[in-house]
Amino acid sequence: MRATRSGTAVGVAAENPAVIALAFARPAGVFGESALRDGAERADGVAAPPRWAPGPCAGAPARRRRRPGLPLRRPRAVVCARTHHLQERAMPVPADHLPHPEDLWAFAASGAAVAAGMGDFWPELRRIAPDGSLFLEDGGGNWSRLVRVEGGRFLLVGWDRAGDTTNPFRHPTALFAQAPAWLPWEWIEGAEERGALGFAYWWDGREWSRSSYPAGVEEDGAGYHAHAFSDAESTAGTISDLLEEGRLAELEEWEEAEQEDFDAFRARVAGFAEAVGRRSVAEADLRFLEEAACDTGAAADVLRRAGLLAGTSPDAVPVPAGTEVPADRVRPRTLSGQEWCLLVEPVMRAGAELERPAPPETAPLRELSAALRGLAAEHGGAVAYTVSVGEMSASPSLTAADGSRVDGSPGLPVFELRRAEGHPERGRWFFLRVRATPEAVEVDRAYDHWPAWAGQDFAIGGGAPVGDLAAEMDRRDPRWRPDWVWLLDERIPFDPPADPFTPPGG
User: Fold this and answer.
1) pLDDT attached to residue 44
2) Which residues pair with 145 in a beta bridge?
3) 493 and 340 in contact (C-beta within 8 Å)?
4) In sequence order, which residues have a C-beta less than 8 Å from that of residue 137 and are 6 or more positions away?
5) Which residues of 159-175 are buried (b: 16+ CB within 10 A; e: fewer)?
6) Residue 504: is it exposed, middle or buried by C-beta count within 10 angstroms (0-12/13-18/19+)?
């Protein structure tokens, strides 16, 4: 284990019994890293539910009443990805205690196999990715990936809401400040497309290590992933809980099941988990999936690819090892994410619009206009609808003729409209204002600056959302990017300008 000027890498003994789980953590924001405002519309046009709160969610399947004598296993966490309903919460365990990566791979891959058998949305959340990595997500934005690296090595990365390493109000933790050169840097870049990493652990063939953390970082989120697949016993409990809540509770044949029926089912799942631990799963070990109306063929295919069926080995070809640590992985960062957003905001507000033709009329605009004309007739003869839109969130406002807020406004097709009006070269607008009377509408759009009429918050507030802005600018032809686009460069938080209003060479 090597030391650097910024600290000593943290070693994690493989023999330590504390372990990691890669899924079934608790939800927080329903739509990934950016929670939408209550009542906002999701990017795919579906109305977003209110922010998650403890307790049953509307539409959640009725939970089977626990039968007398059925023991409560604590701690245990099970999440229904459709409704993001937390049934029982797992307590965190130390994030720097991981099992041997082959055990981690086997038990977590068995969870992915069961997800494949369940079908619906589950296989997308828990799967062996095309690059051979094991990908597991809980449906609430928390995720992790485990990948084999040539030379008998492994890398575990992920993100969890409980972590402090990506807090936007703090300087991000340099997860790779003390990383070895052999990490698969190209693969890491691809993993980061899912979102910012909150933890990174590497196995060198002998032990787990990670970079040291600065003071104030008490949790990287990996601890919440350290429960469900620790060994055969915990894996059996996790899979049993998932199937009881996600399958058996919905099957008529289990409506009148007795305690001994559930005990027998769990015993069969336990037998499967023990076979996983031996890397010798047989066809007979999968019969419990038939009882839960699962596709055993789909589950067996994942088990084969993971090398867990008797006589098989993992299909995954280890990714190539790196040769040197990229310079941008170790340099200190000056700005936090929030500070970067606040740096860009005043410059964006002071910007101007490029001359561009108005988009042609579309069906979503006609729908929006008709809805607003009707609301104008109900609220004093005029209404104004204003909205700012990011990649996955929107902040709408609807006011009446006297300036008062109109509450309970209907869902309006703002994401659909933004997509329909987008141009492959000129891009999409960030801000929209539609002023309506019962007879007519007037539409204003802002693509390149933050207009005064757009209000104080951009989508979810807290300055100009750099990630959303950068995603939009990447899609545009360079000729249609505003002059402040240089502030979105990934080097800015490491070396911020003294005067953000003056571009380099300006």
Assistant:
1) 36
2) 135, 157
3) yes
4) 23, 125, 126, 143, 144
5) bbbbbbbbbeebbbbbb
6) exposed
